[in-house]
Amino acid sequence: MGRLTSTIDAVRARGQKALVAYIVAGDPHPDQTVDLMHALVAEGVDIIELGVPFTDPEAEGPVIQLAHERALVHQVTLAKVLELVAAFRLEDANTPVVLMGYLNPIEAMGYEAFAQQAKLSGVDGLITVNLPPEEAGPLAVALQDKAIDPIYLLAPTTTDARAGLVCRASRGFVYYVSLKGTTGSGSLDVTAVCERVAHLKAQTPLPLFVGFGIKDGATAAPIAEVADGVVVGSAIVTLMGEFEASPQALKSAVIELVRDIRTALNASNA
Amino acid sequence: MVSKQLGKNEMLTSFPDQSGHFGPYGGRFVSETLMAALDELTLAYDSLKTDPEFLAELGSDLEHYVGRASPLYLAERLTQQAGGAKIWLKREDLNHTGAHKINNCIGQALLARHMGKPRIIAETGAGQHGVASATVAARFGLKCTVYMGSEDIQRQSLNVYRMKLLGAEVVPVTSGSRTLKDALNEAMRDWVTNVDDTHYIIGTVAGPHPYPMIVRDLQSVIGREARAQFARQHGGLPDAVMACVGGGSNAMGIFYPFLEDETVRLIGVEAAGDGIMTGRHAAPLTDGIVGVLHGNRTYLMQDQAGLISETHSVSAGLDYPGVGPEHAWLKDIERAEYVAVTDEAALGAFRQLNLLEGILPALESSHALAHAVDFAATLKKDQNIIVNLSGRGDKDIPTMAKIDGISIG
Description:
Chain A is α/β, with parallel strands linked by helices. Chain A has helices spanning 3-13, 30-42, 62-73, 78-89, 103-109, 111-121, 137-145, 160-169, 190-201, 217-226, 234-242, 247-268; strands at 18-24, 47-51, 97-101, 125-128, 149-150, 153-154, 174-177, 208-211, 229-232. By secondary structure, chain B is of the alpha/beta class. Chain B is 43% helix and 18% strand. The longest helix of chain B is centred in the N-terminal third of the chain and has 17 residues, at 32-48. At the A-B interface, helix 3, helix 5 and strand 6 of A face strand 2, helix 2, helix 9 and strand 11 of B.
């Protein structure tokens, strides 16, 4: 069993919901990334989703686009991201790390070379935003060889037929994108999301996590009532931009936000 | 060579396959939210493309609104100057709105209407596709938003104002390199958000399936006309057909009806910018690496780490790091050839066509003209080249005036 599945099982056994935190590797500076990852874990984050900077992050809203640009100023390529994961693993052998990015840097490295390097660095899963399961065959094989879990997205527009395909192709968990739109956009219709999540959960034995539009404890709690976990991204990344010049203030602000969400998640399941 | 790459009953014109691939290229690399919309568009197009009523509507608008057929013109003084093969110009510059882009926009606006989508969005580089989109939006009573890089807005202020006069909203894109590729990213983001009521009119033969196919089919009216006109005006087939390639829609449009004519050389001309050796260019087929961007697998301008490079061309319409997947495939199977022409050579051809033929070409099309003159000189006088004169150059006058140090404020 992979680190991702065993972690999710352990969270479930504790009667809790999983908290996934997303940051872009190298944002605002690569020297801060590993320290921030440890801080997230200390505040009760169960899984870290690490964005791989790309020049054309076409599914991201303005907040995360800027994060990609900030990281690219410091030449944070895919190879550098894998180095950061390896550095994180020196002090944390337990927290799963999932990479989230676009296909082209992975193609440039080569599927097999990527899978091998990722495994050595301690990567557990991969979300490739612009790679639907239909086009994923050769990459899926390379990942399976190295026991890295491919995670695919479900959207509000996904038909039931496609949902089946997406769930069958996924390992570890399935990620439901709760909004039509880019990351960080709009506000959630909680009732609609909950209905959809309940419907989707009936179709797959995999845990279902919900992301897009979860900003704080208040928005996380009702979603966690139905989902197995929540993903918080733009809310954290906003702080990266706000406190770009001040690493200490940034860390404190991130800790405060994550603590609020963790507390709300625990209370809603108490 | 070509036949070895194809299966027994396959023809060059039968691509893409069911899943949208041209050999290893093309496909559908988008976020999950768009998959349903692409399926919907594929179904709608499959049923409409053979629907007599739709085809009649399209044909009528192409004739009475766009002004087709566009002439095939023998450029005698240019031919004389080149000193070789006869150079024929397919006059897409004479279309309504001044470029080939309208052929695609009329068709896709009709598609949008049939799918019940009241809003269209578009990306634009030089502004020609934006103007064509805004035009058909006015023609069909659709709402229209055009995304344009802030860098390009500076270079093409005339077209920006034109789009506004046509009632479109022009949104400046300030992310990334602030050019066409970033406008495309932003249009994709809009589409992901507003997919229920919005149709995205991609302006070139790139993007996720079915776009490369739809845009090619709608633009292939250029090649069908040119082929018939040449047979009528001269007889037989030309020896070569030539067009500039940014995303590649005017080139695919004129190439496609000639694909099965093995004796006709198909030559695409990319933008070499300051020169291929300088790295400051926009010629992925000449000097690029295969990768995935904007929904399809194709040749791209990128670095070793898979990050997309900034491109350079004096022509905003060619300033794009990717190219349509069908071109990538035609290059690999050696059915088409691709070369690149520098800014300097294109500017020379721009001036030359003004002086010798009284025609003001777009800077994009000037790349094809520059190569045509050189290439004609290597052929015999009884041979023939058709060049797709894809657009007119009114929009480029401010750029030229600036280069010449003339203030036309």
